Amino acid sequence: MFEEDPLFVDNVRGTRSSQSLLPNHLQLGDTIVLKGYNAALGAWSVEKNGVPMRAHAFIKFEPESPTDIAADLYSMMVNPFKSWALLNESRDSKDPKPSKRRKKRGSNAGTGQVIQKHPHQVSDTANGLMLSEIDDTKSQLQALQVELQVIIKAFHQMYSDDLSESPLGDFQVQKTPDELVFSKLLENAFATTTIADGKEKNNDANTKLFTSLTDRVSVSEVALAPAKIIPYKYLLNSNLNPNVISMEDMRTLETLDFDVLSLSNADSVRSDMYYPLVLLMHMFNNLGLSETFSIPQPILERFLMTVFFRYRDVPFHNFYHAFNVTHTMYYFLHACQAGNCLSQLEMLAMVISALTHDCDHPGLNNSFQHKARTRVSLLHQKSTLENHHLLQCMQILSLPECNILLNLDASEKEAIKLYIRHLILATDLSLHGVVHRKLVERKKQVSKQVYKKGSLDEEDRILIMVSLMKCSDLSNEIRPVGISQKWANRVLMEFFAQAQKEGQLNLPITPFMDQHKVIIAKEQMNFISHLCMPLYENLAVIFPTLNTCVEQLNYNRSQWEKRLNTFFLDNPEEEKKLSNKSLWDDTKQVKSSKVGLKNLLSSRSEK
Hints:
Blueprint: E1 8-9, E2 31-38, E3 43-48, E4 51-54, H1 56-59, H2 66-78, E5 84-86, H3 100-104, H4 127-159, H5 177-185, E6 191-195, H6 209-215, E7 216-221, H7 247-252, H8 261-264, H9 274-286, H10 289-292, H11 297-310, H12 319-335, H13 344-356, H14 366-372, H15 375-379, H16 384-398, H17 410-425, H18 432-449, H19 458-473, H20 481-504, H21 520-542, H22 547-567, H23 572-576, H24 597-603
Antiparallel strand pairs: 1-5, 2-3, 2-5, 3-4, 6-7
């Protein structure tokens, strides 16, 4: 057997760290020669000490680090042809003497000399593999370029203010065309605008959006919390270790009892920004997404960390809400087996969409954006914030260091981007009524076909995906009472903050957001009855396991009702005067039409 750290002579792919490359039936002193590529076997024709053998183990090698990649590339450039020999180094005294076959072939095993020299000619059948290796080399060089760019970004971010001249010379931050476009679209999104010449212009429907944008000048950003700066130094090294997940958390992740807000508490022992990201990585891996789509672990880590920093610290629409929605989606796909009727590509789209669906939310809703005439409201006149979140998602995926879609083929990339667009735009509350009506119309037919392979048409598949997405987004009240009440308080905190901001800017106050008039218990009862229950009850016809969610909704509603009755214990007549209208009902609903859900969602991304 081999001593530790064996050395290859003329090795094209391996380095000293490549011991795992060698099959354990080889011994030091064995001479291995690649004779030519065998297309039928999909491998090189190999001779071991003159005897033909198969060579799969010799060609496959995954570098352990960028250092290994660099060494491999150098070796390939210096010597691209295939002839391997093993040096007989540090032989154990008990090892047998060289075989007669080795002596017959002129073996000088034990001398440390190379036995077999390179063949003088390479067969034409090797061309295919050589081209394949060129492609591999390009991929490795691209991976190195990504790593280099992360280092350059981190360096510039940390030291550019302290240095008059960059010591990196020609190494500068390079942005892809997609990055530049998205950066421009996302620039000053929540800045209020005013007419440059001080005169209002005719709001003609035919006026181009570009004219509207150029006529206006940005004044200042309006948001409940500032945007975060992504510290690139955090993206340099791997910080996420799935092995740190406790058995208790592993178990609870399979249920709706997991409370992510306990991780956001600064006094909590588990208060660690990395831990929720580790849990998200576990979800990707446990659903088989990382393996199916060959997502490199460092790329997945950077994607998750970048998404984390894209969320603002607003009361409700923050990263922990995004985690909550993603965890609910994971629960639907995994524990409730909704993923059994979906493809892996569709599942990947749903997890990405759940995680990024509120990226860079300012804590101020669509109605506020239009009243304040922010830049984003001019850019997206329909589904304003949802389109902004969609652009945020696409911008993150356009970053080479965060592109978890890099190993998808062209058709898969096109399909998943359409799925993501539909799913994120579907979270617009103004589309809630349309989705609900489509679900009512199709639930019985879909329930009969949902697990029959190939029986669902595209429109029904989109309906299932969108319905799961909306239920995930409205999942606070399907969790235990203690957790759901914490989320309810955060929702109202954000709404009250918006009402206060509207007052400061002399804007019309959004109805039902006056903290002196809203009663939280009554509001949550309306929320459950009007928005959550109809959606969950109809989706449970398709996925019966969701009936447990319906039961939890009923129980939570009864608990809110008890709180309400206690509050009005001395004056029950006042309770009867309360409105049964939810503040969520104030959202203007898109009228139902015969247009399919796919086309309706596509139209929401038009200017």
